[in-house]
Amino acid sequence: MPSNNNSTNVTDLMWVEKYRPRKIEHIVNQKDIIKSLKNLIKKPDELPHLLFAGPAGVGKTTTAICLSMELLGDDWRRNVLELNASDERGIKMVRDRVKEFAAVIKIPSRIERKGNGNKKEVPYRIIILDEADEMTSEAQTALRRIIEDSSKTTRFIIICNYLSQIIEPIQSRCAIFHFKKLEEKDIQEDLKKICTNEGLDYEEQALSKIYSYTEGDLRHSINILQTASAFGQINLSNVTLAMGLSGRSKVGEVIKLAIDGKFNDSRVKLLELLYVYGLSYTDFFKYSYQEIKNMKLENIEEIMSIMAEYDYRLTVGAHPEIQLTSFLAQLATIGSNIKSKK
User: Over the stretch 54-111, which tens digit does the pLDDT of each residue have?
Assistant: First the structure.
């Protein structure tokens, strides 16, 4: 919605926020999950803790926010704590922020239920913990205890990409919902609506290329679309330009430099991505996998084995910058060995 003041609202600048659904029935192609959640909402006092798992950009966080809005009404922001666990992965975050919020005795307030006009007490506070699979096992163990102790006043919505990286005691305390990867028709339909609302001409091939590039990540698709719109029409040429400006493309440059044996150059660009552009190390590693997978490289089995090792190290809490730098060093060594054999 447009801003009512003279300053520019962030939702007018970022399309991913401007077009973020505000009701769970508007979530793109997760019909079974939405149906189940709508049934749970009918008895809010009986709502369990929730665990949303699935690929990036398919609506997990948006669903959590929409659910909070529907349960807690217009004053939902005061009663919701939203954290990104990939930013603060350790036990300190759990003790300092999660425990403090969950421990506060809820001040009774009332919300109006749609339909009958009656007002009902807000049932609990909600903690949305995004990218929880990036938390250390120690932090997850501490979180499990807080979930148990605060169940009367707090509900947790835990979000992850990889369910296997959430400890079993947390899984067993939550109702688990598996979000599926979005199909091309779903992505294209959403992008077409945005183009229509923004008055943009588009080519079907260009939208198809966006889907192929983002691999079903709607959030990333919308960002590419917005970048391409700055060049004019949404066509193949402008979409290609937008992709060249994306984080994935810049990660591709880092990987290519490393494989070419230019370790120092690749390291400088890595640090630039992490500390200037703010790319998370998880996104860097995800994009690295996608780029390497699409390259026709020798020794691909060795490279994938190395990636698996570093993915594990990062999962158990190793220092991200050190591990990513070491990963690039190993790629540079492999690249140099390939060159010496030619």
Answer: 988 899 999 999 999 999 888 888 889 888 766 566 667 777 777 778 776 554 444 5
Residue 67: name the closest of 45, 85, 44, 86 by CA.
Answer: 44
User: Which CATH superfamily hosts domain 10-178?
Assistant: P-loop containing nucleotide triphosphate hydrolases (3.40.50.300)
How far apart, in whole angstroms, are the C-alpha atoms of residue 256 and residue 332? 9
Distance set, CA 182 to CA 115, 186, 204, 264 (Å): 33, 6, 17, 38
15 class by beta-carbon count within 10 Å (0-12 exposed, 13-18 middle, 19+ buried): buried
CB-CB contact of 205 with 239 (8 Å): no
Are 277 and 296 in contact by the 8 Å Cβ rule? The answer is no
The DSSP secondary-structure symbol of 71 reads: H
- Interacting residues of 234 by C-beta distance below 8 A, sequence separation 6+: 195, 200, 201, 202, 203, 206, 207, 225, 228
Alpha helices in 105-235 (DSSP H): 137-149, 168-171, 184-198, 204-214, 218-229
In one letter, which amino acid is 157?
Answer: I
Tell me if 255 sits within 8 A of 291, measured CB to CB.
yes
How far CA 49 is from CA of 132, 185, 281, in Å, comes to: 14, 32, 28
Considering the domain 186-244, what is its CATH architecture?
Orthogonal Bundle (1.10)
Helix (H) or strand (E) holding 53: strand 49-53
Would you say domain 248-341 falls under CATH 1.20.272.10?
yes
pTM equals: 0.74
On the question of a common fold for 186-244 and 248-341, the answer reads: no
Measured distance CA(37)–CA(297) in Å, rounded: 45
Domain boundaries, the chain: 10-178, 186-244, 248-341
